[in-house]
Amino acid sequence: MKERFPQGFMWGGATAANQVEGAYDKDGKGLSIVDAIPGGKARLSIVSSPEFDFSLDTERYTYPNHKGIDHYHRFREDIALFAEMGFKCYRFSIAWTRIYPNGVEQQPNEAGLNHYQQVIDTCIAHGIEPVITISHYEMPLHLANAFGGWQGREVIGHFERFARTVLERFGQQVKYWMTFNEINSAFHFPIMSQGLTVKTGALEPQAKFQALHNQFVASSLAVKIAHETNPEIKIGCMILYATSYGFDCNPVNQLAALKERQSSDFYCADVQVGGKYPYYAKSLWQSLGVKLDIQPGDLELLKAHPVDYIGFSYYMSRTIYATNPEAAAAHGNLLGGARNPFLEASDWGWEIDPTGLRIALNELYDRYEKPLFIVENGLGAIDKPDENHYVADDYRINYLRQHINAMAEAVEDGVDLMGYTPWGCIDLVSMSTGEMSKRYGMIYVDLDDNINGTGDRYRKKSFHWYKQVIATNGQDLG
C-alpha cells in the first residue's frame, strides 16, 4: 500500500498558553490582554464596543482564562496523555507575561523560564518534539495600554528582547518555532493579535496596517535571532487561512473573492515569506488611506530574514459576495460571508469544508513553494459525556477524518506538508467565545463555562481513534 504521508510526518496537537494554563497571577506572571477580555458568547461583541478599554470588571463579567484547565500545574499529566496518543510533536505557546510581566522589564522572570524549561523537558522525555509559538494572542497588557498595542513602534524592541530571551534559552532543544499566531487575524479581530481596542484604532486601517508593519519587523528580528542562535532552527510564520469562493460565477463576485484573498489571506505571508511587500500593497494602502511609517533598514531586514515555513490554521471556508447583499449570511461563521448551500456547519455555525483544505494547501504551496504545517484544525462542538465521563464524539472523528483525507490528497498533488497539530488536543477555553462548552479536544476536561468541576481528564472516543491514525502514519482512518 502506498504511503499517504511521508516518514517523519509530525502528528500532534496544539494549544495556547492563555487558553489552557490558568494560574494567571502565579509565580510573577503579569496581566496579558486576554486576562482582561471577558468570557462568554458575547466576548467579541464586548471587546468591539467603543467603551471597552481592558478594564477588568468582575462584577459584570467572568474571566475563564484566569483558571483555564490548569495546564500550568498539570502539564506533566497532560503531556503523558499526548504521549499515549503517540504524538510526535506538541505545539504550545510561551506566555510573554510569564517572562516579562509588563513587557518592559530588562531582566526576565526566571520562574517563568523555569516553567517552560520543565514543559520542554517533559515533552522531550516522552519523545515529543516541542513546537513553540512565541506570541499567541497574549501581549502584555501594559504594552497595549502604554503604546496602543502593536501600532507603537516601541513594542518592537520589547518583543525583540522577549524573543531573544526564549530563543537563546531554549533554542538548542527546540527546533521548530513560529513568531506570531494568526498574524493576519488583525483584519478580523485586531484586539487579539495587535492589542488594539476601538479607542486605540481597531476600526482604523492606518492603525492596523502600521501595527502589522511593526510585527513584520519584529518577526524578521526573531528569525534573525533564531538562525544566529542555532542554524538548525526552523522558524515559521502562522496565518489564519480560510479558502474563499465567489458567491457565484458573476465576475464581480469572483473579483471580490480575489481581492479578499489578497488582503486577508496572502498579505502577511507575502511579506513574511517573500521578504517584501506584494505588488498590490500600494494600491491597497491608497484605497484605505494608509501611509506607513517605514523606518530606514526595515525593508532590508524583511528581505534578509524571511521565514522557513508556513504554519496555518484552517477551520472553515467562506463565500464572498459583492452583488447580492440579501444572500443568506453565514451567521456564526467566524469570518462572515454568505451561506454556502453546499456545506454543513458546526454547532457554532462554522462551515465544514474539507475540500477547502485541499484547495488551501495547493493555493499556499503554489504561491510560495515553502513547506506547510497545519498547526490548527478542529471541530468545536457540544460534548455530552455518559455516566462514566466517556464522550462518543463520532462527529469529531468524522470531521478530522475528512480533513486528513484532504491532506493526503494534497500530498498526492505534490504539496510539501510537514505535519498536523489539530486544535486543541485537549479541551480548553475557546478563543472566540471564552467558553469551555465549545469543546475541541480529544481529551475531555471536567469543567463548565465558569470553570467549575473536578478538572479531571478523560479519554474521548476520538483519543483512541487518533492514536490509531498516528500509529499507522495516517493509513488507518477507521
UniProtKB/TrEMBL annotation:
InterPro entries: GH (IPR017853), GH_1_N_CS (IPR033132), Glyco_hydro_1 (IPR001360), Glyco_hydro_1_AS (IPR018120). Keywords: Glycosidase, Hydrolase. The active site is at E376 (nucleophile). GO terms for molecular function: beta-glucosidase activity. GO terms for cellular component: cytosol. Belongs to the glycosyl hydrolase 1 family. This is 6-phospho-beta-glucosidase. It comes from Pantoea coffeiphila. The lineage of its organism: Bacteria, Pseudomonadati, Pseudomonadota, Gammaproteobacteria, Enterobacterales.
